[in-house]
UniProtKB/TrEMBL annotation:
The keyword Cytoplasm does not apply. One of its GO terms (molecular function) is LPPG:FO 2-phospho-L-lactate transferase activity. InterPro entries: CofD, CofD-like_dom_sf, FbiA/CofD. This is LPPG:FO 2-phospho-L-lactate transferase. HAMAP family: CofD. Keywords: Magnesium, Transferase. It comes from the Bacteria.
Length: 348
């Protein structure tokens, strides 16, 4: 059974790990082995000290490979900062962006391979050989397309300036009012080899609880990807990253506000749109969802989503790795709910 996910960093990584482990323990609904492909956002990528840093790819790779700092959700455990301290001694780098020594090893390895002329998708595959994530990791694109944020700047002639997403997110904690997001290079980007096939030839496509704007939204913006999502014969089921009107962690609410979408599980589903009905905010049917899982706190949204052709289910959406009395983890129950939604769609 082929399962494809479009993922950002921490939310995407944890959900994918829960999915992989759940299927290893309980199998797939059709009893075949699971082939999981994760298409990862590269909009957060950045050049630092001449090194290519791919935060979401690394978070997914470390999380699935058993090398993640669990408490932090990103980076490696047992890190040191000797290289960063040396760089600071030369007046390089920023206080707000931590790069541990072990993590830097990954960036050096990646950059070395990119410098040899290998595309990011091949580099990602080679880095993953060490981590054995148990899934196929694909960057959304081999072409760089970095998210920038337009913020107010009284000293600039235009009254605004663009800063890299990481500066807005990490340094300013998304507290600087953002006028818009600009994905530099996105229009000329192409899906990385294998991405469109992974979507159109999947049996199930999942949107994990990743940031709907700057993670999944960026992936869907790569020319051809949204179209593949509308065209695939697989069911597309998403998990809400918004529970009871707030993100579980991070500042996804600031991103949603910037693009004029309310911070609620229902509004995010409407923003993704139904594959069955034209969305009220778009002229054609460009919606990507067949199904949407909301938290119990948002159960009142289920009926309204069903009215626009999105099969919705309410269940606890806090991810956890501890099995409950039924032997399933919280994430495993979400996975089973997604299978249920897909099966319900097949019979209607
Ligand atoms: P980032 O790139 O590290 O910001 O990670 P993602 O794009 O994958 O998404 C982070 C999103 O995951 C945030 O909006 C959180 O609300 C969501 N999230 C984190 N933990 C959980 C959880 O346990 N359950 C759900 N439903 N969402 C979560
Ligand atoms: Ca990210």
């Amino acid at each position: 059974m082929r399962i494809t996910l479009l993922a950002g960093g921490v939310g995407g990584a944890r959900f994918t790990r829960g999915l992989r482990d759940h299927l290893a323990r309980h199998g797939t609904p059709d009893g075949t082995s699971a082939e999981i492909t994760v298409v990862v956002n590269t909009g957060d990528d950045i050049w630092l000290h001449g090194l290519r840093v791919c935060p979401d790819l690394d978070t997914v790779m470390y999380t699935l490979g058993g090398g993640i700092h669990e408490g932090q959700g990103w980076g490696r455990p047992d890190e040191s900062r000797r290289v960063t301290d040396e760089l600071h001694a030369y007046g390089l780098g920023w206080d707000w962006f931590t790069l541990g020594d072990l993590d830097l090893g990954t960036h050096v390895a990646r950059t070395a391979m990119l410098r040899e002329g290998l595309p990011l998708s091949t580099v990602t595959e080679r880095l993953a050989v060490r981590w054995q994530p148990g899934v196929h990791l694909l960057p959304m694109s081999d072409q760089p397309c970095e998210t920038h944020v337009e913020v107010d700047d009284a000293s600039s002639p235009s009254g605004t300036r663009l800063i890299h997403f990481e500066e807005w997110w990490v340094r300013h904690r998304a507290a600087l009012p953002a006028r818009r997001f600009v994905q530099v290079g996105l229009d000329d980007a192409r899906p990385a080899p294998g991405v469109l096939d992974a979507i159109t030839r999947a049996d199930l496509v999942l949107l994990p609880p990743s940031n709907p704007v700057v993670s999944v939204g960026t992936i869907l913006g790569v020319p051809g990807i949204r179209e593949a999502m509308t065209r695939t014969s697989a069911s597309v089921v998403g998990v809400s990253p918004i529970l009871g009107g707030a993100p579980v962690r991070g500042m996804a609410d600031a991103c949603l506000t910037t693009i004029g979408v309310e911070t609620s599980a229902e509004a995010v589903a409407r923003h993704y749109g139904s594959r069955r009905e034209p969305s009220p905010t778009r002229s054609e049917t460009t919606g990507v969802l067949d199904g949407w899982l909301v938290d119990d706190a948002d159960a009142s949204a289920v009926e309204r989503l069903e009215d626009i052709g999105i099969t919705a289910r309410a269940l606890p959406l806090l991810m956890g790795d501890e099995p409950g009395a039924d032997g399933r983890t919280a994430t495993g129950r979400m996975v089973d709910a997604a299978f249920g939604v897909a099966a319900a769609r097949q019979t209607t």
